[in-house]
Design goal:
With 286 residues, the chain is of the alpha+beta class. It is built from six helices and 15 strands. Strand 9 and strand 10 form a beta hairpin. It binds N-oxalylglycine and manganese (II) ion. The site of N-oxalylglycine (OGA) has 10 residues, from strand 5, strand 14 and strand 15.
């Protein structure tokens, strides 16, 4: 596919990376003090493509945080210990001998919050020689592909989300070495979100359940809920809804947690990977 012509005023160009979602944005230095027009154009592309990729950046933590703040207030994570100097920043590190990987499983970030983050911005500091890609899945496309009857069934439903499966005491054996977590008692809280979410900027509907944090569907018997969630978790990430990004040092990805799930592949045993993550606060899903 050909890139869209670089915009005359901002110089940005946007090239899709798959049929389903995702685009590489070039012609911008994210360390610079970007104009309101450039930020508006990035935001438009973000809502249209759901995940944006930028290559060959060179960002200090302060510059990454400053870029993130152009899109809203930044969040702090209730369970993952932040970088000691930057409370909004998490160092996502996988050591060569780690067995587990942070983000290793399809999920949407922090849906256990009543107001989950609208987006996440991940910057690659150190990447393995090969492997360590991230997958993304378009939840509007997953919803659109359902039958009319299934859409009608899902429309009025709410699902329960909890941090428990990942951050409660009993789940902590799956942690990586370098990522420390805290407050396991706090992980027992349960919140409820619509199963079908309407994107507040595009008005598009999308599936809003994920295998990491969605623990049940309100009003269904346990076995009904399990069966329906199992179907939705697998349907939501069929390969025709996905794209895949191969990182280089200096790559940055910015994804829309209102419309995508993602999955950090752990296929680089013996090597180290270090990413820096910040998140933008969001609203209560409707
Ligand atoms: C995250 C995450 C993906 C990755 O930071 O939320 O899931 O590829 N990371 O590291
Ligand atoms: Mn994640």
């Amino acid at each position: 596919m050909t890139p869209t012509a670089a915009t005359e005023t901002t110089g940005l160009s946007v090239r899709r990376v798959s049929g389903a979602l995702g685009a590489v944005v070039s012609g911008v230095d994210l360390a610079a003090d970007l104009s309101a027009e450039t930020i508006a154009e990035i935001r438009r592309a973000f809502v249209e493509h759901h995940v944006l990729f930028f290559r060959d950046q060179n960002l200090t933590p302060t510059q990454q945080i400053a870029f993130g703040k152009r899109f809203g207030e930044l969040d702090t994570h209730p369970f993952v210990v932040a970088n000691p100097e930057y409370p909004e920043l998490i160092d996502v590190i996988t050591e060569p001998d780690d067995v587990f990987n942070f983000g290793g499983g399809w999920h949407t970030d922090v849906t256990f919050l009543s107001e989950p983050d609208l987006g996440s911005i991940l910057y690659a500091v150190e990447v393995p020689e090969a492997g360590g890609d991230t997958l993304f899945a378009n939840q509007h496309a997953a919803y659109d592909a359902l039958s009319g009857t299934m859409k009608e069934l899902l429309e009025p439903l709410s699902a329960f989300h909890s941090a428990g499966p990942q951050y409660a005491e009993g789940a902590l054996s799956t942690q990586t070495k370098a990522i420390k977590t805290t407050n396991p008692e706090g992980a027992s809280e349960i919140v409820s979100h619509p199963v079908v979410r309407t994107h507040p900027e595009s008005g598009r509907k999308g599936l809003y359940v994920n295998g990491a944090f969605t623990v049940g569907i309100d009003g269904l018997h346990k076995d009904e809920s399990r069966a329906l969630l199992r179907f939705l978790f697998s349907h939501a990430v069929k390969e025709r809804f996905t794209c895949r990004f191969a990182w280089e040092p200096g790559s940055l990805a910015m994804w829309d947690n209102r419309s995508v799930q993602h999955y950090a592949l752990h296929d680089f045993a013996g090597q180290r990977r270090h990413m820096r993550r910040i998140t933008i606060k969001g609203d209560r899903p409707t």
